[in-house]
Amino acid sequence: MQGAPSSPERISVALGLCMVMLAALPRYMAGGHETRQTLIIFALVLVAVAAAVQWRLLSAQARQRLPRLLKRLAAMLLLGMAVMGVWHALFTDWISWQVFISHGATLGVLLHALSLWWTGGR
After folding, report:
1. Is the four-CA dihedral 101, 107, 68, 22 of positive or negative sign?
2. pTM surpassing 0.85?
3. Smallest Cα–Cα separation from 84: which of 106, 113, 60?
4. Which of 42, 92, 95, 103 has the most CB atoms within 10 Å of its CB?
């Protein structure tokens, strides 16, 4: 897996990064940060195109592993939202929903990447 130019694990993490960038957009829109918003959109397009190119390089066998990894990513995103919800409920004043989804998505993708590393991509 490490030497492969393309792997379903890398694609799932790249799609997770796209989710984080999408989740961050409302935060910057609400704050009036047009420059950051534009940069995130450019980065989102770049990562999405890279993920699509990586997907085209996958073998048929590797493509069959991707749906399982995307389910794992979705579960980790939900776990990230739940953990951040509890964290903010216990330790912070109410934050905006934009910050909440941004933090939850970030934690979810981090948990996904760590779980892939911990299990060796299985």
Report:
1. positive
2. yes
3. 106
4. 103
Cα torsion through 7, 70, 43, 52, rounded to 10: 50
Rg (Cα) of the chain, in Å, rounded? 16
Q: What is the DSSP string of 57-72?
A: HS-HHHHHHHHHHHHH
User: Do 30 and 101 contact (CB within 8 A), yes or no?
Assistant: no
Q: Express each pLDDT in 42-71 by its tens digit.
A: 999 999 999 999 999 999 999 999 999 999
Q: Which amino acid is at 92?
A: T
Take residue 122 and report the two structure tokens written for it: 């299985």
Of residues 90, 111, 112, the one with CA closest to residue 10: 112
